[in-house]
Specification:
Subcellular location: Membrane
Organism: Vigna mungo (Black gram)
Protein name: Plastidal glycolate/glycerate translocator 1, chloroplastic
Keywords: Membrane, Transmembrane, Transmembrane helix
Distance between the termini: 115 Å
GO cellular component, one term: membrane
Order of helices and strands: HHHHHHHHHHHHHHHHHHHHHHH
Helix content: over 70%
Length: 472
Amino acid sequence: MGTPESCKSEELCTELLQSRTGVTSISTESVTQTFRLRVFGVLHWVVSLGLILATDFLLKKAFAAASIEFPSALCGMFCIFSVLIILDYALPSAAVAFEKFFEPGIIFIQRWLPLFYVPYLVVLPLSLKEIPASSAIKICLIVGIGYWKSSYSYDHDVGGWLATLCVTGLAAIGVRKAVKTELLDAEPMEKPSPFSSIELCAWTEVLLISFAASLVFPTALGTRARTYLPFLLASTVLGYMIGSRLPSSLKKVFHPIIFCAASAELAAIALGFFSKSGLDAVLGYYVTNSSSNPGAGDILMGFLGSVILSFAFSMFKQRKLVKRHAAEIFTSVIISTIFSLYSTAIVGRLLALEQSLTISILPRCITVALAVSIVSFFEGANASVTAAAVVVTGLVGANFVQSTLDKLRLRDPIARGIATASSCHGLGTAALSAKEPEALPFCAIAYALNGIFGSILCSIPAFRQSLLAVIA
């Protein structure tokens, strides 16, 4: 009596329980799998980036021990690129695997690339104290900051940046017409992800907590430089994050790197005021140039060598494009590099700029990571002035490169990409690629090659002497 019904109920309950248990099991499995993937992703990122940084560190040590003046990171870049090419020829799947392994680290470097330029701008007030106002004005004229007027109500300057842009663009167009190589689609380049609200909140917390700790316990980590490091680093990173999120219309006149530098500078002023140590002292803690007592700026600049190593992967990814358009790329980049170096030397002499300052701004159109290495070949150069000249050149280009290329009627993506990277390096490249992705591969290639050719040329004693003869 009632047994069949109770049996049916039990069966239904069992099925229901099993189904629920199964769902729970699947859900738990899914969560576990997701967690494992995330942990693996983090470990992959740490290992890939760590190996790039370790390679740069070991190369620096080896070159210093051997008293080799040539930039160690540039040599490393050539080695990595050669390994990739050899693997691609012998075992293509190994080359792809090698590239994919280092991809997380490369994406990280590309995402934060402009941030690594900032420390030289932040400590610029210390360097400018020794430069007369008249010399600073001359440097601005050479770099290409003048009187502008375009669609944004400025008048075009005839300074260095515009001259380099014109020469490079016209050279590329001339070679393009001569070789008549058909333009094919480039390999897609992955864009770094935008900054999230969680990242902003996390760095804001670091900023506030470390600021309080710096004031209450200024030597909690042994030295003021190490204690101030979290606060000054957070102020720099937050400035870049917020600057990157500004409306595009505002970015045209207030580039993220300016916002970033201003944020770090204001933080240094605030810390100097409340700690009663003064701005100059805090800026001295920001960049100490000491590996045993690093500041926030030293940490950021420590990535500059890895930036150069990352060029090997960018060039490898676009190897087919480089091979197909080698004539246009190499010819225009070589012309651009030589023109930029000698025109800077000539104008510096015409304006009677001090020899040491002219030398310092010679590589104004080459990325900071290599520009600083280039001026190390010369005696009496000021690396801070070098970096500032490079960054300002990039800022001018980032703001006006597209409108200028349009006015010059340079429509070809190869010419636009090469001219942009050769005249205003990474910052101009970022500005152009945002709206013209078809020009990005040529920007990336020229961005690397321009620095490579500049480094190679300036490592040759005869070439350096010729530049010095023009300057003197």
